[in-house]
Amino acid sequence: MTFRLQTIRAIQLWLTIVALALAPLFFGSVDPLWVVIWSLVLSIGTLCGLAVTIGALQSYVVLVFLAVCCAYALVAVIQVIPNLAGSAADPIWQRASDLLGIDLPARISARAEIPPAIIGHFLLLVTSFLTGIFVGASRRNSVLLMQVARYSILLYALYGLAALALSPNMVLWAPKLAYSGYLTATFINHNTAATFMGAGTILWLCLAYRSFESMNVSSIRLLLLMPANERLAFKLMSRSAAGLICFFAVLLTGSRGGLICTCLGLIVAIGLLVSGRIKTRIWLVFGLGSVALALLSFWLTGVGRIGSHGLFDGGRWFVYESSLKLIGERPLLGTGAGTFADVFPSLRTDKLSSWGVWDYAHSTLLEIAVEMGIPIAAAVLLAAAASIFILAKSALQPRSRDRNSLSAITGIAVLSYLHSAIDFSLQVPGYLVVFGIILGCGLARATSDRRHLSEARSRAPAPIADVPRNSAERAAL
Length: 477
Description:
By secondary structure, the protein is mainly α. It has a domain of about 270 residues. The chain is about 70% helix and about 0% strand. Strands 1-2 form a two-stranded antiparallel sheet. β1 and β2 form a beta hairpin. α7 runs antiparallel to α8. The longest helix has 28 residues.
């Protein structure tokens, strides 16, 4: 029985690793076929993961996550039930009935059914997060998973650099329809590629800091005289080089949002690592952080497309303004899951260029508020904020063996959430799978009962030896 359980857990681990490493490969898995394939792979991994024993805190994280997902699914189903909402129904159904001369059943959603793409992306999010949780229940498996994440992103970055040098107008074997001359690696959109490479930057540079932290540096001249320091120095240089390769790839994507969010995520990750080692007053930490942000902003204003085009496209402000108008009209239940691309064309005016198709709001949270209503968007926002809080709080524990990976995952969460506020990287399956697995793994380690128990024991005072209280007890001894 034990051998069978170990086999099932090994299958779950390797299915998760395969999805993590290969989901970005074929154009970011935007094709429906790949969405189906990864949904099946991760669903099998999730079912196998039921054989993994998780702790009480990890179970609580899973329950909260599933509660938010169930609320989202429930609203999506309510939106497409005919003749349910009455006055809350989308007026498009009445106009269509008048034009066609037939009585069409009214729905809250602007669509008669939930789009299959939305269902597929929803399943990818649920299964990738759960498989990450199950892998993270084991520290050894989580270490292997994070190692695969680092090396796979580095390989994608190296491929992206080689492809940009040798065939800048191609994505894999297909010609680029946009972003010619910019690094996109295996993704179609350069912003998603920047977020993906930014995650690799954070993972590798946090690992490089760990090597630096482990070195016994009493003098720069004595640094390489100790054999142990020589090995650590080699690790430091190789890991720093890998991080710089990923960061160089971020720069070559030309993504303004990706660059800014990567830098902010990296500052958060390194800040968490440093804060556990250096005893400073809180005002000094905030002061140094403010200076770092000011220098970062000053530098970014002159870099690449930020210096030439500014921080935002003018069209995005119009889209955000139109989205807020839609939210004001349908604040509770929205326009329907996956309907943004259907309802937005009716709001286009001469202020927005006629070039291009706006099938995304370029803000995932804003798009959720448009399609699903403010309550669901607020629940998603609270869940995202809670995940950062849990990860950061655990990363600040000085005795935690997972401190490095938790700090890196916190930085990746900050990078991904911030970038999703101004773009749609989390709506691309190839990155959604990677982020969901890493986030689930990080939250599992942050809420590991065994880790919290060991930390509580390390903080507890040493037991006091029993002292005989009277002569009878002394005589008995």
